[in-house]
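TASK: fixed-backbone design
INPUT:
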């Protein structure tokens, strides 16, 4: 049946997300992926999203989009999902709207409530050693993969780097401390998680402030509440997403990024950070901070491989800053 592509919501080398219209006039979102190229980070992730959407829609109807149908072409697979008309993602919302403080508090509360519905669904024991595997796979292995590019390796070997004029020890020089720190973190329980809870994957209706989640993935390794919340912090506190709209500048050991943070995002970060450290949520803040740091480390090889060396260096510098802050917060 013929379909019309109305808008490309997100394009990439492996896959894309499009707003489509069926021959009956129905609006849907189509997520397609190459069935041939880079299947580990393409098709496998795409499939993990499909299974999460299937299960979460059945457990928590209305929070995630419904899957409508699957399909295949010669070189790709796709699934169509329900389109949330009138919704926009939280990153765009904070850039384009001017919510007041009360509304920002309401939004933060609703986001936490939606996550809590998912997180409360099942509680599993976490296996001993999970965090060690996470550190190895998502931080050390990813760093080593990124270092296959000699220009990245040269930067990562500098012992003190600067981010926007602020000096700090390199991530590489902090690895012994990091190993010790991670070995002491207690990860108690795991639960169902979103797996990719960035502000671009949280939708809001700007009139009713209803919240929806999209774009989940099975890639946390440790499915804990802190993993999801660390991805919110990655956006609200470390400005991932907003930073993507600006070009970093690298000169020797110094990295600069001149960017503007929308005021509502600053206020949202204040509110949500306070909630994350409040006794009510009872989060493990050492785990939360470590996972927040790791979100930047785990992306390094993908930035290098996509040819965006300057952003890989920026993310490396951000990971150095977050480790430095952890050392100040938790002592040496
Ligand atoms: N079901 C949906 N309803 C409304 N908007 C959507 C929907 N799915 C995606 N979008 C919009 O498209 C953007 C990209 O979609 P997403 O599924 O997150 O793709 P990607 O996997 O490329 O990140 C989202 O940030 C959101 O703005
Ligand atoms: Mg997304």
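OUTPUT:
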């Amino acid at each position: 049946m013929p379909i019309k592509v109305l808008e490309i919501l997100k394009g990439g080398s492996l896959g894309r997300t499009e707003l489509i219209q069926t021959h009956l006039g129905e609006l849907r979102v189509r997520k397609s992926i190459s069935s041939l190229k880079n299947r580990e980070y393409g098709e496998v992730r795409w499939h993990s999203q499909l299974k999460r959407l299937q299960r979460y829609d059945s457990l928590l109807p209305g929070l995630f989009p419904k899957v409508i149908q699957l399909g295949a072409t010669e070189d790709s697979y796709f699934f169509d999902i329900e389109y949330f008309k009138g919704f926009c993602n939280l990153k765009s919302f904070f850039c384009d709207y001017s919510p007041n403080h009360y509304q920002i508090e309401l939004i933060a509360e609703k986001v936490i409530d939606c996550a809590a519905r998912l997180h409360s669904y099942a509680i599993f024991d976490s296996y001993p050693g999970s965090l060690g595997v996470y550190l190895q796979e998502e931080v050390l292995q990813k760093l080593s993969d990124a270092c296959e590019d000699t220009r990245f390796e040269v930067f990562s070997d500098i012992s003190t780097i600067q981010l926007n004029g602020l000096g700090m020890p390199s991530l590489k020089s902090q690895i012994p401390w990091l190993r010790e720190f991670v070995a002491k973190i207690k990860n108690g329980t795991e639960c169902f998680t979103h797996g990719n809870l960035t502000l671009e994957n949280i939708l809001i209706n700007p009139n009713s402030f209803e919240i929806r989640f999209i774009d989940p993935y099975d890639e946390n390794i440790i499915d804990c509440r802190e993993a999801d919340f660390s991805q919110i912090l990655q956006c609200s506190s470390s400005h991932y997403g907003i930073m993507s709209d600006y070009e970093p500048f690298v000169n020797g050991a110094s990295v600069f990024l001149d960017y503007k943070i929308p005021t509502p995002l600053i206020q949202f970060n204040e509110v949500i950070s306070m909630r994350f450290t409040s006794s009510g949520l009872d989060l493990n803040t050492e785990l939360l901070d470590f996972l927040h740091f790791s979100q930047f480390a785990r992306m390094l090889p993908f930035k290098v491989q996509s040819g965006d060396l300057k952003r890989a260096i920026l993310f490396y510098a951000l990971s150095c800053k977050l480790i430095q802050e952890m050392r100040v917060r938790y002592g040496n």
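COMMENT: The first strand starts at residue 4 and ends at 11.
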